[in-house]
Design brief:
The structure holds two protein chains of two kinds. By secondary structure, chain A is of the alpha/beta class. Chain A has twelve helices and twelve strands. The chains are: A alpha/beta, B alpha/beta. Chains A and B meet through strand 1, strand 2, helix 3, helix 5 and helix 11 of A and helix 1, strand 9, helix 9, strand 11 and helix 11 of B. The structure holds iron/sulfur cluster (SF4).
């Protein structure tokens, strides 16, 4: 798995647990995400001191305090900008951003968008609980229309944003979704994200059991989930259902759910392709009850990351200049001498 | 050309001259002014410039709103301002004449482009009759020159389109005035060569021809009877170069980062009048400079702070509207105690205000414009060349005290130019940056007993993994703490740390008697006007002194003593009275303000008048 075998064997999950008491509400989906991340870290073989977690404001943004790495709990929405400055000047570091639906898509939407389109080598985890938790329960930019909250007693009149669609629109090079309670799947997606060179965007469906309990119950409920989740795998047909008896097929410019049998076979189904932007977009629009919710990697393509390009420009200019000489710099252009 | 047959015209000597180029914003007046300045600098004169242009890139041609001007004061003695009024006005069209003629004194030299005084242009300039013929210019020495025609004539065999030819008119004006003041056009010819010869040789050729045509016209045509000469200034020996405030600021930042041995990271969003610093630094990557053109002002400062977390010298450049947006991130830097420099190149406000005009009205914004008790050091350069020293010092203070620092320049300093005595890199102060590496006894907020600054421990250092954030933190460990007494202790220690910067401040320079009738106290770009006014008053035997402060937060420790030794303290500012408020509040001194809010620097005469009226008071 890793060139840094020593570091791998030397560290375990506990090494990534900080001495701070975790202060999320009991039962919050954040606990599970934290546990998976702490479990994954030793596997990556990256020395602890070279890992940085940066967050904004919100429940999810307390995350860095609980990781025994370098961390920066910044201000509302700005984590991608701060992380961009760090990563661009320190490409040797592994930089993770933790954000939420309010932090990342509302107050910080602009920064998220631009980090994604620049393809800065950041791992961005967006915990989507479709509510403002820290401020005690107002609707968020991913809340469903009509949602009744303290700030929308008659129901919200906003149409929600779909994080995956937004990320694809910004041409993010890695776009994925997973779920807080699906530990194995989450770990596998996080691992893929960490291996990606460039911005990796992961939407994690997260239950806020205090202010929006069960927001994703129709996707995560044990009895329903086989029918409600479409697990994406590159090169594999889009199959789902308890008995793998349902699939997704193209119908004109749209997708449709079909049951296998009665003349419909696997060969009729769409095959997932992580490099096909049109397919990724169509998949990003699927949601229950009509469709299963896709989870896994929607898109993974290669593009030179921003930070590497920036470093290259600086290195090339340095090589061209030779040893920096301030006196030469000061004396550039037309100069004249005044004799004593 | 029959120049050899023409007798050399007489040359008259002048101590100093103020010349103003004025034309349509598309006429290239800034360029003509800049190159006249460069020729003048190389002639060894002391000089000071004032570019003054509209915010619109291309306002409708020929209108009053579209007039762009460039004023240059050059002298054989020390000078400090671009001059109150021009001795020579070059007006490329009627609108430029209309906007500027009020400043030209009796008998002043007026050069106009005759062909531009068409009925239509005269109307656009809102004249009711042709000023060239209605006698309204009789009190000036008017030179009607066929600049348009002579430019077209010089280029008639080039095959260029008329529109393209017209673009060289500014070079005619430049050539003519270069002759009039006996400037060598060689440096301008060199610049034309380097700028255009490769990509657009036809433009290079056109500009070259027209520049020479203008020069030769002055020499040969029987229009100007005399040329003028201003002898080189007797200034301190050394090597000089002409520099604008923004260029000096950029060099100051690069120099400090080099001295610190760290990369410089600029996060910035384009904004007038700060963008040139971004352009300058983007061209200096070879010196380990990273420039990040961010998606907005907030991301600009955020990225700079992120880079500072990683051990780079993080800076951001902006103007007032941008500072408003950056406030929350600056406060984060105050809270996490990381070094950061915020360069605010002030402009007229509020809101979008006057983007291309100067003002000093962000001082209280820098001082107080953040939530809660949030002390940030403030430094302000006094002249364009001084921007170098103060930008350098801003980084030195930021890294030594682990704090954001405001660098308050303004539009006048940014675009204005003066000769800069080029320093030797070896003579620059030390900028010591030491990262903590020892895990033994490490706490993120363990303070240096002298400076009270916390250790800079950067990611990548084994054993020092820690978390910082904007939540109040424990005095020592930096862990989140909401404890009441701890909060008070943290607020007080942040304040004490900044107050302690007084130990870095050199004695305040005082020009004038140690005690007397009036102390004129200034900060920032008012330096030149105040210094000239005070010198003029001193020459009349008045007991007037000038003190100019570069450190505004904290204030110099010797200031209260100085303030107490004069009957009156006058604080001229290009705002409604901001430093004066701080001074009154801090020292209970009855300082009074002289305030100008016109987007223009002070005239020397305005300050002289005010001081004189104070002297008459009991
Ligand atoms: S409010 Fe909701 S999201 Fe926040 S910690 Fe509690 S359960 Fe988790």
């Amino acid at each position: 798995m890793s060139e840094n075998a020593e570091a791998t064997t030397a560290l375990n999950r506990k090494d990534f647990v900080s001495d701070q008491d975790v202060r999320w509400c009991p039962g919050c989906g954040d606990y599970s995400i934290l546990a998976q991340v702490q479990r994954l870290m030793p596997e990556l073989g990256i020395p602890r001191e070279n890992i940085v977690f940066i967050s904004g404001i919100g429940c999810s943004s307390r995350f860095p305090y609980y990781m025994n790495t370098y961390g920066f709990h910044s201000i509302h929405g700005r984590a991608p900008a701060i992380a961009t400055g760090l990563k661009a000047s320190r490409p040797d570091l592994t930089v993770w951003v933790v954000t939420g639906d309010g932090d990342g898509l509302s107050i910080g939407g602009n920064h998220l968008l631009h980090a994604l389109r620049r393809n800065v080598d950041l791992k961005i985890l967006l915990f989507n609980n479709r509510i403002y938790g820290l401020t005690k329960g107002q609707y968020s930019p991913t809340s469903e229309r009509g949602k009744v909250t303290k700030s929308t007693p008659l129901g919200s009149i906003d149409y929600p944003l779909h994080p995956i669609t937004v990320a694809l629109g910004a041409e993010a090079t890695f776009v994925a979704r997973s779920i807080d309670v699906e530990a194995k799947h989450l770990t596998s997606v996080l691992r893929r994200a960490s291996e990606h060179k460039g911005t990796a965007f992961v939407e994690i469906l997260q239950n806020c059991n205090i202010f929006n309990d069960g927001a994703f119950a129709n996707i995560t409920d044990k009895d329903q989930k086989a029918d409600a989740q479409l697990v994406l795998e590159h090169g594999k047909p889009l199959l789902f259902g308890k008995n793998h008896d349902k699939g997704i097929r193209m119908a004109g410019h749209k997708l449709e759910v079909v049951e296998l049998g009665n003349g419909v076979s696997e060969a009729d189904l769409l095959v997932h392709d992580e490099q096909d932007p049109a397919l990724a977009f169509l998949l990003s629009t699927l949601m229950p009850p009509t469709f299963p919710a896709p989870v896994g990697v929607f898109r993974a393509v290669d593009r030179p990351p921003y930070d590497a390009a920036m470093g290259e420009q600086v290195e090339r200019a340095k090589a061209k200049l030779g040893t920096p000489d301030l006196d030469a710099l000061f004396n550039q252009g037309d100069t004249w001498d005044v004799a004593p | 050309m029959q120049s050899e047959t023409v007798a050399q015209k007489p040359i008259e000597e002048r101590d100093h001259v103020v010349i103003r180029f004025a034309g349509d914003s598309g006429d290239g007046m800034q360029l003509a002014g800049m190159h006249f300045t460069n020729e003048t600098a190389l002639a060894g004169n002391d000089l000071s410039t004032l570019p003054d242009f509209p915010a619109e890139i291309r306002a409708p041609t020929g209108t009053l709103a579209g007039v762009s001007g460039f004023q240059l004061h050059f002298s054989s003695a020390d000078i400090f301002t671009p001059g109150d009024q021009p001795d020579v006005l070059v007006a490329m069209n009627p609108a430029a004449l209309k906007v500027n003629i009020g400043d030209l004194p009796m008998n002043g030299i007026l050069i106009v482009d005759k062909e531009q005084f068409t009925e239509q242009n005269i109307k656009k300039a809102e004249f009711t009759s042709n000023p060239l013929t209605d006698g309204s210019l009789d009190r000036f020495q008017v030179f009607e020159v066929s600049i348009t025609k002579l430019t077209l004539n010089a280029l008639n065999d080039t095959g260029l389109q008329t529109r393209a030819m017209m673009r060289s008119r500014n070079f005619f004006a430049l050539g003519l005035t270069s002759w009039l003041f006996q400037r060598d056009i060689e440096p301008t010819l060199r610049w034309i060569e380097s700028k255009f010869a490769k990509r657009t040789p036809e433009v290079a050729e056109a500009n070259r021809r027209v520049l020479k045509a203008g020069y030769n016209y002055g020499e040969t045509a029987e229009v100007f009877r005399t040329a003028y000469k201003v002898k080189p200034a007797a200034i301190a020996p050394g090597r000089y170069r002409n520099i604008t405030g923004n260029a000096a600021t950029s060099l100051g930042f690069v120099a400090a980062a080099q001295k610190a041995g760290r990369p410089l990271f600029l996060g910035s969003y384009p904004i007038t009048p700060a963008s040139d610093i971004l352009h300058e630094l983007a061209a200096m990557k070879g010196y380990g400079v990273y420039t990040f053109q961010a998606e907005d002002e907030i991301a600009g400062v955020g990225a700079a702070l992120g880079a500072a977390f990683g051990g780079a010298i993080g800076i951001t450049t902006t103007s007032g509207p941008g500072v408003c947006l950056k406030g929350e991130t600056i406060n984060l830097a105050v809270s996490v105690e990381l070094p950061l420099v915020i360069a605010d190149i002030q402009r007229g406000g509020p809101s979008t205000g006057l983007p291309t005009k100067t003002e000093q009205a962000d001082l209280l914004l820098a001082m107080y414009g953040r939530n809660s008790d949030s002390p940030v050091p403030i430094l302000a350069p006094a002249t364009p060349a001084d921007c170098f020293n103060v930008a350098f010092e801003a980084i030195r203070i930021a890294t030594r005290y682990m704090t954001p620092v405001f660098f308050l320049s303004d539009g006048y300093l940014a675009n204005g130019a003066e000769p800069w005595r080029v320093p030797a890199a070896a003579d620059l102060p030390e900028v010591k940056v030491e990262f903590r590496t020892d895990p033994v006894g490490y706490y993120p907020f363990l303070r240096d007993p002298e400076t009270l600054s916390r250790p800079w421990a950067i990611p990548g250092t084994p054993g020092l993994e820690h978390r910082i954030g904007g939540i109040e933190k424990d005095y020592l460990t930096g862990n989140v703490s909401y404890a009441p007494m701890n909060h008070e202790q943290m607020v007080r220690v942040r304040s004490r740390k900044i107050a302690g910067i007084v130990r870095e401040i050199p004695p305040t320079e005082l020009n004038g008697p140690d005690e007397g009738d009036v102390l004129v106290l200034g900060w920032g770009s008012t330096y030149g006007a105040i210094e000239s006014a005070v010198r003029a008053l001193q020459a009349e035997g008045k007991k007037v002194a000038h003190a100019h402060i570069r450190y505004i937060n904290p204030l110099p420790p010797d200031l209260p003593g100085i303030l107490s030794r004069y009957r009156h303290v006058l604080v001229p500012e290009l705002n409604m009275g901001q430093l004066v408020r701080l001074i009154r509040a801090e020292y209970l001194v009855d300082a009074i303000g002289l305030n100008k809010i016109q987007g223009q620097p002070f005239k020397v005469s305005e300050i002289v008048r005010k001081v004189s009226s104070l002297m008459e008071k009991k």
